[in-house]
Every structure is written in structure tokens, then in C-alpha cells.
Inverse folding.
């Protein structure tokens, strides 16, 4: 968008003047800390000792010598995958079903959106209870009632289930939000296009893959980027529910970084991890743009 | 993530602040009697104690009394009862060189670094100058000391940790109070086969499980083991280390702790014990009001008793030596120490023990008698009496001893060991490696 077309009577300078304060704020609140982390990542510093320049030692340690780092990285990817499937997949299904609904759309929309406005801490406590085995929580009780008693387990203490168990609440929480965005996009698909396709004998599935989805692709890209970056930065629910445990089974890069900084007071190394998280987010967004653009062009 | 960025920003600002004003002047930590006029002002105490607990209530009242004679004085109490959050707050403030006049800390390696940098007043000299040093229980002061014997924190509590048990449940399973630590795994098996949860534990906070790994080495090799272990001079692969690692694995195999313990909190564990579902519960005298008064469920009230940490065959420490912490201590900031802080401490520390003992708690001093509350069961007095016959050694909680990275890793690996997710060999290897990596940075 060109500023002079957007605001025909305003000069380019006046637009810049209005853009400058938010840009400065962004610089101070986001860019500066990132640069500061980059700077700190070359030092060994525990907060009260003298800062000691260690070159790329922290990076070498991260990539070569730290088993928890790689474990946390893999966990973060699994966490991301579960969140994305629940959030985007769930949102798309619900939004598609909503468009074919004649009544009660508003009610269902509101109900789905509800978790997004509950506080994180409340969600974490809620799910700790749901997953509990002793005293028996909702999930285990449900399994018991439907005769799947063999599935009853302490979900948050079992190293095989804990990662999925802490990912699900985060996915569940924002499904409604992305559903709302995708639903709005689906509403904007021109009816005449769909009708023409139906006249040509397109099935519901073809209608979806050939008409609807290509039409909402820009919105889909945006939601994918949003969900991915949120997923990569996921922190609070796993931290509150299990603090990364048992062992490192639900440790994410973010919780590991936080602990390295504020429990181990190893600010230098924690900065190194945070630099990795920033790079990881950038790479993820780049990948998504690349893949979806290429698909659109193909 | 916003939180993290904010934290990163705080750390960054901290870095700038440090480089800008690195050499802030401070008082000589041994100059405990500063001369000059007492100028009343507001002072702050950053602390990690229950918000409506006895310590805070009493100190608030004493500060108000002091302010009557010193208009303008105020004691600002900033409490963060959640310990991990508190430690983060303390460390960030220390990094920013913004510690208040008084602050709580255990005798951790981090605190020792602060002391070495001259940031804390010498508490031994301070207490001696106030002429109250000799009133303190030796054990209460020892708990606050660093390994070199120096004292930089002042205790406000004195607690004894016992293993509480339910007589009826033990009888039902046909087991007796364990004579040795080594009896506990078999005891758990018997309790489990009788359908009873052997031990209720708060796994979420991690320190309760960490207590258990300290027990065997304390009996086997005495309090020195952890002092050497944390520096890498002793290892988990040593005999005393192996004994505790294998014992922890056995506790896990015998299913001593409730299922899914790692996600259960403090009150979950206590409820399991006080509702008669779990047979044993390891906790200190700070819980006397809920375990030894009529607040306890009448259904179990007469069945509850306690035993102290069992010994083992050939034990290096005696039965009257166990975990007897004097709680988190209060350090006095050397930078802000002045005639006012000195005078207030003199006023408050002299009056504190009597007020504290009146609440039914054990004072860190021996010059006052604890008032047993009217609603107490006979167990209350029995628990208090244990304080009089203590030996000279005490088992230190490991979370105050190890460097923070090793401590964090130990807490994680312990859960895996007890749950049977890793073998004792894997545990030993990981932990010895972790100590070798992290200890040198903290104990050089």
C-alpha cells in the first residue's frame, strides 16, 4: 500500500511521523532485548559475578554438549505439532461445519471462544485436576465409565503421555479464536462461485479443496503463522502444570531457557537459548511462507 | 513468551545497570555497630514466608512499636511465599544491585557468593554485638552457616522434621515402625498389598522427594557427604552415593509414594494423610497446628503419631540427629546497613522470641518456652520435646546445598529414578556428570 493512495491529502512525512512512535516502542520492547540477548550470549555471567567473554562457547555447549537442549527442542516440535493440529485442524473443521449450520451459530461460536478468555493459570489448574489419578480426575473417570479402565493413568506423571497432556490444553484453548478467523474468511467466499461449482457437479469435498480453501488461503497463511509462532513460544501452561517434568519429558525450549536464566542464574547461556528461539521462529515463518506460496503458485 | 521477553529485558537492563554503576560503595560487613545518628526512614524486608504467618505478623507489630518512638520509621514487608519465584526475584535484584535492607535466603552457594562479595553483614558479629548470640540454639545457627562455618543469616524459626504415621493403617498391614531406613521398602510393599498408600508426598514442589535422597548418606557418611558431593569431591558412584541411589530406586519399585505423585501438590499430599488414605507423611513441626490439634479429623486424630528419621546399621549419625532446619534466614544488606537498621534489629530481635513462642512455635532461641495451644493433642508437646534432646549434627536439605543447576537436574532425575523410568546406573552417570560440569563454577 502506498501512503499517498491511502491518505490522499496527507504527505508522506506526516504518515511517517505517526508511524514513528510505535516503531520506537517496538524497537525498545522487542528489538533491543533481542540484540541484548545476542550480546549476552557471548558471555558467562551469573548476575553477580563479573561478565566473562567466552566467545562461541555457549553455542558450542548448546549444540554439542547439552542433552537437555535437544530433548527440549524435540519436545517443542511435538508440542507445536499437537497445538497446530488441534488449533488449525480443529478450527477449520468447526468453521466449515458452522457455515452449513442454519441455527445457533452465534451460541456455538461463543462457546468455542470461551476458553480463550479464561486465564492461563486457571486453565493449568483445571487440567491438573482433569488429568489426576489420585484423587481420580475427570479424564480417568470418563475412561472408567466407558469401560476403558486400562487407559487410566496419571497422565502428568507418565513420561509417555505428559507431553501430549500439556499440549492439549494450549491447543484446546485457542481453537475457538482461530475458528472465528477462519469462519469469517469462509463467509467471504462468494456464494455464486460455490453455486456455479455445485451446478457443475462438484462434490462437497471438491468444493472445499478447489473453491473454498484456495479462497481463504491468505487468511490460512496468517493463522498458520500466528499459531506456529505462538506454539513455538508456548511456555505458561507446561510450566505451570509440570514445570517440565517428570524428568525432562515436558521441558520445552522456553521453559528450559527460563530455568537456565532464573533458577541456574546462567544468564549468558540462557541468552544463547533465547537467540536460538528467535532464529527458530524466523525460520518457521519463512518456511511456512515458502511452502504455502509455492503451493499457491503451483 | 511476553513474560520471557520482559524477563530478558530486565536482564538486559540489569546488565547495563551493572556496567554503569559496578562499584557501588558498601559498608564493611564486620562493622556491626555503626556510629552516628539514627535517622528514621522506611526500610524493606524482602522475604519468603507465609503472608499471614507468625513471623510476619510479629515483625509487623514490632515495627509498629518501634515506629512509636521513631516517627517516620516503617518496615515494608514484601513477601513471595512461593520459593522458586522468590529465589528468582532475589537473584534478579542481586544482579541489579538493588537488594533491600533485609532479605531472606538459605545458605545456598549463591548466598555464599554474595557474602564473599561483602554484600551481607556478618551475622555472628551482629548477634554478638547485640548480646543475644548465646541465646540461640546452636542447631538453629548451624543450619544458617556456610560450610566454612561463617554465619550471615539470622534464623526466625526452629523446626523438626518427622515421619508422621497412622498407627491404625500400619497395624492393618501388619507392619511396625521401621527400625532402620532399610526397612522402609519392605514396609511399603506390605502396605500396598493391604491396599494402603504407603507415603503421601508433595511431588510438585520437588524438595520433599529430595529430602529422601539425603537420608541414607546422612546416616551412612554423616553431614559431610553432601558438602563434598556438591563440590564434586564425593560422587554418587561412591558407596554412600550408591546406597542412596539404590534405596531411592527400591522405594520406587515398592511403590512407596502415591500414584502420580509428581503432579500432586502440598495440600494434596497432606489431605491424603489426614484423611487416613496414606500411612506416612514426612513433614516438619510447622504443620503441628494441622496435625496435632483438634483441627485434625477426629476419625484419625488418635491414630496419628510420628517417628524420627530411622538410623541404619553402623550409622555415622545418631537417632537424635535428623533434619532440624531453622527455616530460611534473614540476611542484612551491608550496603544499606546504618544506625537505624542496627537499632531496629536490636529492638526487634530481643523481643521476637517471646512473641514467637507465644504462637505455639519453637523459637530459634532457648530463652523462651513455647506455649502449647489450648486445642492441642498430646502429640504437640511430644513433638516440641524432641527439640531438647538433639545431637550436634543435622541433616541439611540438599536443595539449599547444591548449585542451582545440579539441584534442578537432581530434582528431575529423582522423579524418573523413583518412577522407574531410568536405572540407578543412568541416574548415577547423569548426576555425576552434571555435578562435574556445574560445581566448579559455583565453588571455585
Amino acid at each position: 500500500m502506498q501512503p499517498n493512495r491511502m491518505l490522499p491529502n496527507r504527505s508522506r512525512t506526516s504518515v511517517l511521523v505517526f508511524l514513528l512512535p510505535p516503531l520506537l516502542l517496538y524497537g525498545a520492547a522487542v528489538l533491543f532485548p533481542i540484540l541484548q540477548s545476542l550480546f549476552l550470549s557471548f558471555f558467562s555471567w551469573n548476575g553477580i559475578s563479573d561478565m566473562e567473554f567466552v566467545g562461541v562457547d555457549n553455542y558450542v555447549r548448546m549444540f554439542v554438549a547439552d542433552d537437555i537442549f535437544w530433548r527440549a527442542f524435540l519436545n517443542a516440535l511435538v508440542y507445536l505439532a499437537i497445538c497446530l493440529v488441534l488449533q488449525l485442524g480443529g478450527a477449520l473443521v468447526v468453521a466449515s461445519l458452522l457455515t452449513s449450520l442454519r441455527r445457533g451459530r452465534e451460541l456455538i461460536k461463543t462457546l468455542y471462544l470461551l476458553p480463550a478468555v479464561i486465564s492461563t493459570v486457571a486453565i493449568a489448574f483445571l487440567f491438573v485436576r482433569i488429568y489426576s489419578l489420585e484423587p481420580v480426575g475427570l479424564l480417568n473417570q470418563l475412561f472408567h465409565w466407558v469401560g476403558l479402565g486400562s487407559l487410566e493413568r496419571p497422565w502428568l506423571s507418565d513420561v509417555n503421555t505428559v507431553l501430549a497432556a500439556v499440549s492439549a490444553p494450549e491447543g484446546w484453548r485457542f481453537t475457538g479464536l482461530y475458528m472465528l478467523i477462519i469462519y469469517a474468511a469462509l463467509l467471504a467466499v462468494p456464494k455464486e462461485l460455490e453455486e456455479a461449482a455445485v451446478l457443475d457437479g462438484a462434490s462437497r469435498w471438491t468444493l472445499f479443496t478447489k473453491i473454498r480453501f484456495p479462497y481463504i488461503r491468505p487468511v490460512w497463511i496468517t493463522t498458520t503463522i500466528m499459531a506456529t509462532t505462538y506454539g513455538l513460544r508456548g511456555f505458561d501452561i507446561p510450566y505451570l502444570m509440570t514445570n517440565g517434568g517428570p524428568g525432562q519429558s515436558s521441558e520445552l525450549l522456553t521453559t528450559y531457557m527460563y530455568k537456565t536464566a532464573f533458577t541456574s542464574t546462567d544468564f549468558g547461556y540462557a541468552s544463547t537459548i533465547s537467540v536460538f528461539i528467535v532464529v527458530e521462529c524466523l525460520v518457521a515463518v519463512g518456511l511456512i511462507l515458502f511452502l504455502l506460496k509455492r503451493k499457491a503458485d503451483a | 513468551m511476553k513474560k520471557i521477553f520482559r524477563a530478558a529485558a530486565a536482564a538486559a537492563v540489569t546488565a547495563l545497570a551493572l556496567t554503569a554503576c559496578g562499584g557501588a560503595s558498601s559498608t564493611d560487613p564486620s562493622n556491626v555497630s555503626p556510629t552516628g545518628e539514627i535517622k528514621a526512614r522506611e526500610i524493606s524486608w524482602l522475604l519468603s514466608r507465609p503472608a499471614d504467618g507468625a513471623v510476619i505478623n510479629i515483625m509487623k507489630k514490632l515495627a509498629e512499636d518501634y515506629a512509636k518512638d521513631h516517627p517516620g520509621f516503617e518496615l515494608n514487608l514484601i513477601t513471595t511465599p512461593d520459593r522458586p519465584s522468590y529465589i528468582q526475584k532475589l537473584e534478579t535484584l542481586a544482579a541489579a544491585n538493588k537488594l533491600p535492607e533485609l532479605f531472606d535466603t538459605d545458605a545456598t552457594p549463591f548466598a555464599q557468593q554474595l557474602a564473599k562479595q561483602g554484600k551481607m553483614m556478618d551475622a555472628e558479629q551482629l548477634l554478638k554485638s547485640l548480646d543475644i548470640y548465646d541465646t540461640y540454639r546452636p542447631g538453629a545457627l548451624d543450619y544458617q552457616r556456610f560450610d566454612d562455618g561463617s554465619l550471615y543469616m539470622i534464623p526466625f524459626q526452629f523446626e523438626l522434621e518427622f515421619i508422621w504415621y497412622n498407627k491404625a493403617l500400619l497395624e492393618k498391614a501388619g507392619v511396625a515402625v521401621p527400625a532402620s531406613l532399610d526397612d522402609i521398602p519392605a514396609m511399603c510393599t506390605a502396605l500396598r498389598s493391604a491396599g494402603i498408600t504407603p507415603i503421601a508426598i508433595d511431588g510438585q514442589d520437588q524438595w520433599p522427594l529430595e529430602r529422601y535422597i539425603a537420608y541414607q548418606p546422612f546416616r551412612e557418611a554423616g553431614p559431610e557427604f553432601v558438602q563434598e558431593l556438591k563440590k564434586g569431591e564425593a560422587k554418587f558412584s561412591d558407596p554412600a552415593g550408591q546406597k542412596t541411589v539404590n534405596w531411592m530406586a527400591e522405594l520406587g519399585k515398592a511403590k512407596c509414594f502415591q500414584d502420580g505423585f509428581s503432579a500432586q501438590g502440598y495440600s494434596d499430599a497432606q489431605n491424603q494423610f489426614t484423611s487416613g488414605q496414606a500411612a506416612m507423611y514426612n513433614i516438619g513441626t510447622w504443620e503441628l497446628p494441622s496435625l496435632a490439634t483438634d483441627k485434625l479429623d477426629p476419625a484419625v486424630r488418635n491414630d496419628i503419631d510420628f517417628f524420627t528419621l530411622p538410623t541404619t546399621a553402623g550409622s555415622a549419625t545418631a537417632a537424635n540427629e535428623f533434619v532440624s532446619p531453622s527455616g530460611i534466614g534473614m540476611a542484612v544488606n551491608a550496603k544499606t546497613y546504618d544506625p537505624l537498621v542496627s537499632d531496629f534489629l536490636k529492638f526487634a530481635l530481643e523481643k521476637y522470641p517471646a512473641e514467637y513462642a507465644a504462637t505455639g512455635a519453637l523459637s530459634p532461641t532457648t530463652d523462651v518456652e513455647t506455649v502449647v495451644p489450648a486445642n492441642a493433642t498430646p502429640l504437640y508437646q511430644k513433638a516440641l520435646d524432641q527439640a531438647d534432646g538433639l545431637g550436634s549434627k543435622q541433616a541439611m536439605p540438599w536443595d539449599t546445598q547444591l548449585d542451582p543447576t545440579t539441584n534442578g537436574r537432581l530434582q528431575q532425575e529423582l522423579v524418573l529414578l523413583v518412577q522407574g523410568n531410568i536405572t540407578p546406573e543412568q541416574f548415577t552417570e547423569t548426576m555425576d556428570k552434571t555435578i562435574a560440569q556445574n560445581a566448579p563454577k559455583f565453588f571455585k
